[in-house]
TrEMBL record, chain A:
It is a multi-pass membrane protein. It is found in: Cell membrane. The chain crosses the membrane at residues 12-33, 104-125, 137-162, 202-222, 260-282, 310-332. Its main location: membrane. Residues 98-329 form the ABC transmembrane type-1 domain. It comes from Roseibium aggregatum. This is ABC transporter permease. One of its GO terms (cellular component) is plasma membrane. PROSITE patterns: ABC_TM1. Belongs to the binding-protein-dependent transport system permease family. The keyword Ubl conjugation does not apply.
Automatic annotation (TrEMBL), chain B:
The chain crosses the membrane at residues 30-52, 95-118, 130-151, 157-173, 220-240, 260-281. Residues 91-281 form the ABC transmembrane type-1 domain. The lineage of its organism: Bacteria, Pseudomonadati, Pseudomonadota, Alphaproteobacteria, Hyphomicrobiales. This is ABC transporter permease. GO terms for biological process: peptide transport; protein transport; transmembrane transport. GO terms for cellular component: plasma membrane. Keywords: Cell membrane, Membrane, Peptide transport, Protein transport, Transmembrane, Transmembrane helix, Transport. It is found in: Cell membrane. It is a multi-pass membrane protein. Belongs to the binding-protein-dependent transport system permease family.
Amino acid sequence: MAGRLSTIGTRIAQSIPVILGVVVVSFVLTRALPGDPAVYFAGAAADEASIAEVRTALGLDKPLPEQFLIYARDVATGNLGQSLSTGQPVLEDLANRLPASLELTLTALMLSCAVAIPLGVLAATRPGSAVDHLCRVLVTAGVSLPTFFTGVVLIYIFYYLLGIAPSPLGRLDFIYIEPDRITGFYLIDAALAGDWETWVGALKQLVLPAVTLALFTMAPLARMTRAAMLSALSSDYIRTARAAGLTEDKVLFTYAFRNALLPVITTLGMVFSFTLGANVLVEKVFAWPGIGSYAVEALVVSDYAAVQGFVLAMALLFVALNLVIDLTYTLIDPRIGFETK
Amino acid sequence: MSDTATRAEALKQQDGALAHIAYVLRSNPVTLLAFAMFAVLLLAAVLGPLIAPFDPLQTNASNALQPPSFTHWFGTDNLGRDVFSRVIVATRLDLAISIAAVALSFLVGSVLGSLAGYWGGWLDAVLNRVFDTIMAFPLFVLAMGIVAALGNTVENIVYATAVINIPFYARLVRAEVNIRRDAGFAQAAKLAGNSDVRVLALHIFPNALPPMMVQVSLNLGWAILNAAGLSFIGLGVRPPTAEWGIMVAEGANFIVSGEWWLAIFPGLALMFAVFTFNLLGDGLRDIVDPRQRS
């Protein structure tokens, strides 16, 4: 147990330089603005005096290392600057919109795991069968699909042609009343409030964007599950387990699947990175009021503080997620140690 | 005398390689198909404006939003422009952006990876940290940030796409160079009086090229998706320029009223391009490294 705790400690310590690196990159990005950042942050209507004022306020007249320390302190205290377009602190804006994005991303990931992992397992246990071919087609087609295009096609089919999907405008149709904010996840909030009508309404809005994202993430997951299961099934311990007369289910799930899970979870981490990027596109297609569409709106009006805040927040979220994934490794497979890295 | 012998040897070896490629193509018609699809893309990119039946920027308000017909194969958009012509002409820009980006990351990644793999030491450690940091970002989001910081132009789309791809190339080259650093042939070349740089560039680095080519092909598809995604959210390419991502973005506004051809055709072209590069990458991998065949 002590060994495992120190493993976890080492892993957490390892993420510190990465976080530092992320903050440095994001600092460089805010200072790499073409021309004078003070001019941008002062806004379009600024005169000489107010630009100088902004420069002092932002600390841009100080030497670069000192600027970085100030920036790092601001980030550490959660001060990501003011958004020009909304007039709110960027952190507050992001926090308000994060649940919408997370609800979409997590639903999509769960959906995609629920389809891709069984598909991969089935394909691996029945090589050459129809399931295997389906898996292969899905994998090849899936990586070629531009998410934003899939979204547009789904809208055309399910909204325009079949008329079963609600109009692709946000999280909830205007006929429903937003549930009281508890977690910010409409599905959870509506369920907590016992308002099942709103729950169904929110679910309807969620289905298409979630499916769009899920289609995009299914391919790498199915591919990795299939490959990992194939290599696990061809290993010596499976042969031994079969020779010992264990039932096929036991061999498949207790021995093969558990060992195949590790690479699948690694892939899941990678897929999450793609999803955070694809989220931006899907949110734009479905007018989903998450942090992705917030960043896109900010980009259009050159609201740099908001964009850089978004980039930094996404990176930190991703670092945290990778940490969680690595830590779950130790739960799934106690053999994993991080010292060897 | 020995000269002709080595030449014959080289010829035979080349023959062997060609025969191997021919064998792989015969046994895997999908790769052949991928090469054919690639040829179509190249043709559209090179000839573009010559084979497009209409001027891609010519507006015609009286002929707006017409469904596909015999004169307008892919219909016309909200300004009466011919969608087919725009899709064809856009090929050049989309391919140019992604090829430029991939070439740039190939170049920078090769140099950095070679240096890190050959000399190691603090340079290797520093580069490793830098690449770790780049990979710590969701890559599309980092590309957005870079374009936002550098300015909203097509060149910056290229730079951003190149930056987020560099770690993949550098890591690959580093590994390939590192395992051959002390190989017999490298030491022999050094003993023969070649400088370190020469040994690295002419003797060791070429060994990394086959896996690099596979990476390039797979990466091209991804670079196209990335660039189209960026222009979809309004970065880089500006209207009225014909580009697949921006065409899907413009067409998306009409999809809810049923004018599907505006967004579907450029989207299909995009998918076709990405699919081609992915197939090509898988095919090249079969030729380069048959063991990894899935």
